[in-house]
Every structure is written in C-alpha cells, then in structure tokens.
Design brief:
The structure holds two protein chains of two kinds. By secondary structure, chain A is an all-alpha fold. Helix content of chain A is about 80%, strand content about 0%. In chain A, helix 3 packs antiparallel against helix 9, helix 4 (about 55-65) runs antiparallel to helix 5 (about 70-80) and helix 8 (about 115-125) runs antiparallel to helix 9 (about 130-160). Chain B has two domains: about 1-30; about 55-110, no CATH class. Chain B has five helices and no strands. The chains are: A mainly alpha, B mainly alpha. The interface between A and B is large, with 92 and 72 residues.
Chain lengths: ~240, ~110
C-alpha cells in the first residue's frame, strides 16, 4: 500500500512538473548557444550545466568571464544571483529535513525554482503526506525539468556554431533576463529594489572589475528591504 | 576569449558554491530559521542583481558601446512590459524576440 501511494506521489510530481519543461528548455538551449558562441566546447557546456544547474547564475558567470572580470567577482556575482536557493532550502526543510542524508544531498543538488515552487505549495496544501510521499513527489517534480535542462543544453551547444551571424545573439541574454525578472516584480519593494539597482549600476558603469554590479546589487537589496520595513511599519501604524 | 583554466575553476567553484547554498538549510542548519533581516535581504537578491547586470547591456547596446541602440532598447521595454503584464516568462521572451527580430529586419 505504502509503495503504491509513494509511487503515485512520484508520478503526481512528474505530472505537476511537466509544464515547467516549457520554462527550463528555452533557457537551456539559450545557454548552450551563448556558451558555444563564447568559445566553450560541447564538453565544457555540458559540464557547466551538469555541475551548476542554475540558469541565471550560469548566464551571469558567462557574461562576466567574457569581459575578463576577475574570477572572484565572477563567483560572487553568480552566487549572489543564486542566493535565493538558500531561501528555498530553508523553506522546504520543515517538510523534508528528516529524510536520510544521501536523499537530502540529492534533493539539494536538484533544488531549483521549479522544484521548490511545486513542492512547497504541495506540502502546504497536503499536510498529511508522509515523508516518503513528500520525497517521492519532490523527485517527481525534478525529473522532467532536469532532463529538459541537460538535453536542451546539449541541443543549444550543438546548434550554437550553426546559427547564422544575422541572429542578434548579443541581445538574447537581456531579453531572457528581462522575461525572467518581470514576473518576479510582485510588490513595491521589489520594484524599488530593481529600479535602485538599475540606477546605481548605470552610475557605476565605469567602476573597474565589474564591481559596480556588486555595489548596485547591494544597493538594490538594501532599498527593497528598507521599503519593506517602511511599508510594514505604516501598515502596523494604520491598525 | 575565455581562459580555459579559470573556466574550469569557475565551473567547479560555482558548482560547489551553489550546492552549499542549496544544502545549507536542508543539510546543515536544520529547521532553525534565519534572522528576519537576512531573509528580507535574500528576498531581493534576484530582483536587484539581475537588473543591475542587464542595465548596462541595454544602455550601451549600440555598436560603439556609448549609448542604447533603439531597436534593442524597444525590445527590452517590450519584453519587460509583457512579462510584468502577463506574468508569463515564455510569452514575454517571444514578444521580445519578435520585436527585436522584426525591428532589426525593418530598420537594422
């Protein structure tokens, strides 16, 4: 009985994860194409996608490496883009934190926007799920997205060298990032954070070693965070 | 050109770093929670860093890297507006790509 319900939890995860192929696939293809254009070979592209599995961080690292940015700045910037996964890790720990260590290692490796969003929503909705069911559901949500990520990175890398030069690949990254970021602007503090970051990064455009990015990032985070504090205070005062 | 030695270093350092971020709570911290200010900062990392990264790419998109190239600027605005309006990544990316492609074809 338990094994059948665990199995069905896995397949429920696979089904719920299926639509997210549409989100992961284009970014993976794009990463493959841009990385190949930047001079990486197929093995390097695949290693990158396999070891890191984080679209935004990979794009950031690639962009900065091409500008001959110092390695430390590349790492800080790319990890900063990826900091949100620490928040995801915190959010799913109450539900999955008692799983065996090897499973938590695997879960961590596969923790991306999609697996977090689906699993966290599901576990909140269905508090009666057992740990094996939750684990199965989580890995179910990862299955297709991970598969799509690797296969499409490969396709992009294979395609990369054959793209006609008339395609404006230089601007693929801003378009990809803008489409990713726009739906994330859900509140006034998010908007303030983004606008502050944009303004500061334009002011700091000539700061060496791409340090302007780090300065602008922190300014944006501080502005967003502070706006949130003000709004909360105002709301509390109104009550 | 990207230096191959630093490329491999970055791939593995980024892999280990990303894994540690993911493993941080699930593996190490348990269900102890972060201080409120840290969570608040974490909420705004992506919406700050990503715009900071693309702003110069849009603002200096002309051939001499001195100012915005009109078609690219408009494509960027279309992508963002459609994304903010529909909350749909795919719809936004398609609209941006079509605007860019069509604009460059007509005026490029």
């Amino acid at each position: 009985m338990t094994s059948t319900t665990t199995k069905s939890a896995y397949w429920m995860g696979v089904r719920d994860g299926a639509p997210f192929i549409l989100v992961a696939a284009p970014f993976a293809v794009l990463f493959g194409v841009i990385a190949t254009e930047a001079g990486l070979n197929l093995f390097e592209v695949m290693s990158f996608s396999f070891v890191v599995i984080a679209g935004a961080a990979q794009f950031t690292a690639l962009e900065l490496m091409q500008k001959e940015t110092p390695t430390l700045i590349v790492l800080i910037s790319a990890l900063a883009v990826n900091l949100r996964v620490a928040m995801y890790s915190a959010a799913i720990t109450p539900y999955l934190g008692t799983a065996p260590l090897w499973q938590r290692v695997l879960m961590s490796y596969m923790l991306v926007d999609q697996s977090y969003a689906l699993a966290h929503a599901k576990f909140e909705d269905a508090p009666n799920m057992s740990l094996p069911q939750r684990t199965a559901y989580y890995f179910g949500t990862c299955t297709l997205v991970m598969g799509a990520w690797f296969i499409c990175s490969f396709l992009g890398a294979a395609l990369g060298t054959q793209l006609p030069p008339s395609i404006p690949i230089d601007f693929a990254l801003p378009i990809a990032f803008l489409s990713m970021i726009a739906p994330m602007i859900r509140s006034l503090p998010h908007l303030v954070a983004a606008i502050t970051a944009i303004v500061v990064s334009l002011i700091c455009i000539n700061v060496p070693y791409s340090l302007g990015l780090i300065i602008a990032g922190f300014a944006g985070m501080a502005a967003g965070s502070q706006t949130e504090v003000w709004i909360t205070r105002k709301q509390e005062a109104a009550l | 050109m990207i230096d191959k030695g630093s490329l491999w270093f970055i791939i593995f350092a980024l892999g280990i770093g990303s894994f540690m971020l993911r493993f941080s709570f699930l593996g190490l911290v348990g269900d102890r929670s972060l201080p409120a200010w840290a969570l608040r900062y974490l909420r705004y990392t992506a919406v700050a860093i990503i715009p900071a990264l693309i702003a110069p790419m849009v603002a200096l998109s002309n051939e001499a890297n001195t100012g915005p190239e009109p078609v690219r600027l408009i494509a960027a605005i279309v992508t963002f507006s459609v994304g903010a309006w529909t909350r749909n990544v795919i719809v936004a990316i398609c609209n941006g790509a079509i605007t860019l492609g069509l604009g460059l074809y007509l005026f490029g």
